[in-house]
Amino acid sequence: MAKKKRRNPFIPKGDPQSWFARGEPLLWFNASGVTLSLLLVGALLYLLTANGLAHFWPKPLYSLSVAATGTDGSENESEPTKRLYVERVRTEVSTHATGEQRSTLFRRGNRDRGDGEFVWVNDENVVSLSRPAELVRVLREAWGPAYGELQSLETPRGTVALSPDADQALYEALDRIDAVRSKMAALENGTIRKLNREAQRLYQRERAIGGDAPLAEELGKEQARLSAAFTGAQRDMLEMAQSIEPYWLTLRVDSGELWRLPLASVLAVQHPNSMSYVEKLESWALQLWAFLSTAPRESNTEGGVFPAIVGTVVMVLLMSVIVAPFGVLAAIYLHEYAKQDWKTRLIRIGVNNLAGVPSIVYGVFGLGFLVYVVGGELDKLFYSDALPSPTFGAPGLLWASITLALLTLPVVIVATEEGLARIPQSLRDGSLALGATRFETLWRIIVPIATPAMMTGVILAIARAAGEVAPLMLVGVVKLAPALPIDSHYPYLHLDQKFMHLGYHVFDVGFQSANIEAARPLVYATALLLVVLTIGLNLFAVLLRNHLREKYKAL
Amino acid sequence: MNNSLHRGRFAARQVLDRCANALISAGGVGVILSVVMILVFLLHEVAPLLSAPSLTEQGTSAVPASDSTLLVAEDIGSVGLAFSESGEARFFDLSRDRALLTRSLLYADASVTAATRAALPWGAAALGTEAGELLLVRPEFETTVTQGRRELRPSVRPIVPLLQLAPAGDALLRVALTETDSELAVAAESASGRLYFASWQLDENGLAGSANRVLSLPPGEDPGSSGLLFVDARHRFLVRVTFQGNYTVHDLAPVNNAMPVPRLTSGSLFEAGEQLTAAAVLFGSASFVVASDRGALLQLSPTLQDSGELSLQTLRRFSVPGKAVHHLAADPGSRLFAAVFDDGAIGLFHSTSQRQGWATTGLATDEITASSISNGGGQLLLQDAQGGVTRFSIQAPHADVSARSLFAAVQYEGYRAPIFKWQPATAGATYEAKLSLSPLLWGTLKAAFFTMLFAIPLALSAAIFTGYFMASSMRRKVKPGIELMEAMPTVVLGFLAALWFAPWLDEHLAEALLACLLLPVAVAVSGVLWGLLGNVLRPYVVSGWEPLLLLPVFAGTAALAVFAADLLEQWYLGMSLKDYIYQRWGLDYAQRNALVVGVAMGLAVVPTVFSIAEDALYSVPKQLSDGSLALGASRWQTLRNVVLPTASPGIFSALMIGLGRAVGETMIVVMAAGNTPLMDSNLFSGMRTLSATIALEAPEVALGSSHYRVLIVAALLLFLLTFILNSAAELLRQRLRRRYRAL
């Protein structure tokens, strides 16, 4: 009897040339992997972009009538409907045994009135929804936005009634207040901060001179001058603050009550329902700019991310200054100088391995070794007079940069080695044959050709470092830094200072803020900024690499 | 001349070359060494955990007099305190061998018959007298610095005035004292066998007013022969153990004037003839240790069973060579205690970790009359019958951690059975830290498992199609598109997972799960349909663009899933799928769960796996697949029989690296995993991983503490896990390279 032939179970019976027999349907599963991956990438980017950019768009305000329901769900006869001035946040659908229920989250604003800033409304209870043109959104320094109708404006020269057609007085007053506010900020950041620093220096000198009488007299004079200047500056501040105090804005809120708001804390007033598209675009751009250029307010849930941008950029640049020379040095050693034997192979495996070591392990190393051991020793040697309060013995900018430099070292080494490997051996041989030394060959021939590859490595390292958060949580990032790590005051770059970071900002605001609903749009915007930064840097590196590959193909 | 100039320049060039050579070599080796430092540092920080507790003898001092009944030592061990039988408190300086201060606490001809101290740093001490009175005092050491010299000024402060606990003349033979932040309780047994209990509220100065309640309980068996009295920290149980090993546990909670006799349970700890030799209350007063003359050493704790019955739970038996224990001394600041054996050996034991350390001394240990461990746990004092005090210094900085406590189930105080638990936070000063890495390791592996479950099919199928089937014009756009995702900061993925995807999935669980089930079916159906209709449509479509054709299929599947979910939940189940899962299988649904983590971390891993696997597939030499196709095999057959086997090392390497990333990823799990250290395999519950634990706890942990070192062990584990995975991947890749070179 003939032996039964083993049949490949993946090939169906029948005509071997048929569509199915050739296994084509299986191929579709693979195709679906590509489709799904791309869809997920697209959905992710869309989600971020839409939510991140929409935050600054002046959203319409609604006047919402809600049927008041009792606790049992029945309609309350005595108070049939309730009017609310709201902004729509999102709708959720929940499935119950009785069917689907749609409910919408609305933002009522007016946090300081204490009626609840956000409200969930069952869609069945919505009686009417309109967009009255006279509704305004008042953006404020504290307590989030206020919604209502403009009623009147109190100025030192009297009260002006406001209506949608006659609100010129309001904008003039806002401009005036804005001017005063920026003058106050300039005074505080310039003169007062400078005086503070001088006072601090004076105090240190006073401690240093001890009992020297003539010097002490001189210092006393200096001190008197400083305190006079300080009093003057404070008086100016107070005067300016008082000059904007008598401005009050009265709003009619949804319950019909009148509400007086100090105009000094108002940043902008929008009529989102009657704005034209161009006006909305202008407002969007202004808010986006404010987001990028101002400091956060309200425990990070409002305002901008400027300090986080500065912190991220300074840390990453410092890191690249550290990682670039060392990474390149190591790569050149490995590829050009070390003997290619099992030892270099082992080192190469080690370097590749390090790229896969979890970033949090680097964080532990940074905290345990750099901060506590190296930083602690530095403090004992150079900053012993400040002890026990640590200078470098606590997490800070320098340690964060070094930790991330270690983390990104393999990236630079691998990219640089790749660049070196692309350089034909004939170039080296030619140079050496003409009598150049090894270093001259390296410096004149190899390095110029490999420079772009090194740059690619550094850019990739920057992109990786900019998005890395976990190790930073251990070695120097904070929720709110009192000052920028870089400023105009000696030594300009404050290596021992803690700093803010975009990625940590996302984590902190998204997870540790009390008012998550109010903060959510801001987190989307911050996340988008971070993604644009890292993906942009990556794209740049990829394009650079592709460009170079083309350029040196001929060699 | 020209020649010499030339020669000079040549020499300079040579010097420069040599300098550069040295610099580059030094720099390169330095960089590589600095990286090795990470491993060295981790090992160095972990090493102290390995050292066993040890004892070294420090010397003997002649003070105080021989009649002392209780020893207390100051935190650096240089000052000791002994309470004498005549009611004196004697402070003495051990290092300088002299008495410091003696104060009489009682009246002229008083006689102390029992003494004990609370198992707390700076705890109170209780003395019982022959006349049935009770004295509660607190030893205090005030540190003053005079002319740069640190001086300790000791004093003793009464907590309550002398209290007549038993009737006059009924001597108190045994006392127990339990102190917490705000309460103090005393139990005493008189010569007549009656048991007394009293408790006080403490003010912020550690002083007490009038007693909250005073109880008097009738005598038990063998009146007056108890070897140990114990009151737990909540003042719920009173335990009495006789020298024969018979115990009674009284439930004090329901006792009041109307019902003066508490319910009790009794039993025996030892075999007949075995004698109790020593006992000590452990730190926190939740449990105590007893020892017998046959070498039994037990940790016991009174508990209520599930049925409400009283019992004395044996938390653990320490394995000691069957030698008689003569004396026990417990550390008032940790769960460490010392056992002094008859033959001169001293053992140090930690109850939680079961770490042991041994020392042998030349002391006649069977003559020890009193012992104490100092408040800081640094010194052990033993007093012999002649009144000499021998000091030992204790080195046990990390006795609370052992391999067993890190990885095996541990019987903690207050639990019925050994458990795996990670709960290092100290709820109170006497909290028993639960440092088990097992739940964290489990959480790490669980997160990695669900991540790979999501990522492998997606990444590999995408890699296979892109690397082998896809039209090259499309590949040039698709590959960078997916790889770009690698640059996506994981903190953003974690944020989206936790604040967008997790709430969405909470609402749309049925839709999501149905879509996962329907999608393969829909793809298969569309493949079949394409096969049937293919002859008509195929001429219009270039091979390799199939992914685009699938877009409408996906949209249709999504719509179908929404419709089917409605049908399922409303008509078939009659409840939401979450409720059904809970009722049917008892699985709780946590919003931040393994499914969310799997998808989010999967997205972070897909680009890595895709990129490496695709490279491996794409670099399979073209002549191989061309040959196969030319011999009549179909595209699929060529893939299955030629391309995949050739590229398999590269694909495995991609999976290893992906797994390594999933194991070490931090921000996504910190944000989306809920961070509860559970040990279940439920898809709908959260977990806490090693990396998340480090990120959340390391910034606040005290440098050098056991918790800090255990976190470093966690980092070391992560390092080793990823190191093994990555090395394996690297070896596989090198094999692949050799294979391609051979072809």
Automatic annotation (TrEMBL), chain A:
<feature type="transmembrane region" description="Helical">
    <location>
        <begin position="396"/>
        <end position="420"/>
    </location>
</feature>
<comment type="similarity">
    <text>Belongs to the binding-protein-dependent transport system permease family. CysTW subfamily.</text>
</comment>
<dbReference type="GO" id="GO:0035435">
    <property type="term" value="P:phosphate ion transmembrane transport"/>
</dbReference>
<dbReference type="GO" id="GO:0005886">
    <property type="term" value="C:plasma membrane"/>
</dbReference>
<dbReference type="GO" id="GO:0005315">
    <property type="term" value="F:phosphate transmembrane transporter activity"/>
</dbReference>
<keyword id="KW-0812">Transmembrane</keyword>
<feature type="transmembrane region" description="Helical">
    <location>
        <begin position="354"/>
        <end position="376"/>
    </location>
</feature>
<keyword id="KW-0813">Transport</keyword>
<dbReference type="InterPro" id="IPR000515">
    <property type="entry name" value="MetI-like"/>
</dbReference>
<keyword id="KW-1133">Transmembrane helix</keyword>
<feature type="transmembrane region" description="Helical">
    <location>
        <begin position="305"/>
        <end position="334"/>
    </location>
</feature>
<dbReference type="InterPro" id="IPR035906">
    <property type="entry name" value="MetI-like_sf"/>
</dbReference>
<keyword id="KW-1003">Cell membrane</keyword>
<feature type="transmembrane region" description="Helical">
    <location>
        <begin position="522"/>
        <end position="544"/>
    </location>
</feature>
<dbReference type="InterPro" id="IPR005672">
    <property type="entry name" value="Phosphate_PstA"/>
</dbReference>
<protein>
    <recommendedName>
        <fullName>Phosphate transport system permease protein PstA</fullName>
    </recommendedName>
</protein>
<feature type="domain" description="ABC transmembrane type-1">
    <location>
        <begin position="309"/>
        <end position="541"/>
    </location>
</feature>
<dbReference type="Pfam" id="PF00528">
    <property type="entry name" value="BPD_transp_1"/>
</dbReference>
<feature type="transmembrane region" description="Helical">
    <location>
        <begin position="26"/>
        <end position="48"/>
    </location>
</feature>
<feature type="transmembrane region" description="Helical">
    <location>
        <begin position="441"/>
        <end position="463"/>
    </location>
</feature>
<keyword id="KW-0472">Membrane</keyword>
Automatic annotation (TrEMBL), chain B:
<feature type="transmembrane region" description="Helical">
    <location>
        <begin position="482"/>
        <end position="500"/>
    </location>
</feature>
<feature type="transmembrane region" description="Helical">
    <location>
        <begin position="549"/>
        <end position="573"/>
    </location>
</feature>
<feature type="transmembrane region" description="Helical">
    <location>
        <begin position="710"/>
        <end position="732"/>
    </location>
</feature>
<feature type="domain" description="ABC transmembrane type-1">
    <location>
        <begin position="441"/>
        <end position="729"/>
    </location>
</feature>
<keyword id="KW-0813">Transport</keyword>
<feature type="transmembrane region" description="Helical">
    <location>
        <begin position="593"/>
        <end position="613"/>
    </location>
</feature>
<dbReference type="GO" id="GO:0005886">
    <property type="term" value="C:plasma membrane"/>
</dbReference>
<keyword id="KW-0812">Transmembrane</keyword>
<feature type="transmembrane region" description="Helical">
    <location>
        <begin position="650"/>
        <end position="673"/>
    </location>
</feature>
<feature type="transmembrane region" description="Helical">
    <location>
        <begin position="21"/>
        <end position="43"/>
    </location>
</feature>
<dbReference type="InterPro" id="IPR035906">
    <property type="entry name" value="MetI-like_sf"/>
</dbReference>
<dbReference type="InterPro" id="IPR000515">
    <property type="entry name" value="MetI-like"/>
</dbReference>
<keyword id="KW-1133">Transmembrane helix</keyword>
<dbReference type="GO" id="GO:0055085">
    <property type="term" value="P:transmembrane transport"/>
</dbReference>
<feature type="transmembrane region" description="Helical">
    <location>
        <begin position="447"/>
        <end position="470"/>
    </location>
</feature>
<dbReference type="Pfam" id="PF00528">
    <property type="entry name" value="BPD_transp_1"/>
</dbReference>
<comment type="similarity">
    <text>Belongs to the binding-protein-dependent transport system permease family.</text>
</comment>
<feature type="transmembrane region" description="Helical">
    <location>
        <begin position="512"/>
        <end position="537"/>
    </location>
</feature>
<protein>
    <submittedName>
        <fullName>Phosphate ABC transporter permease</fullName>
    </submittedName>
</protein>
<keyword id="KW-0472">Membrane</keyword>
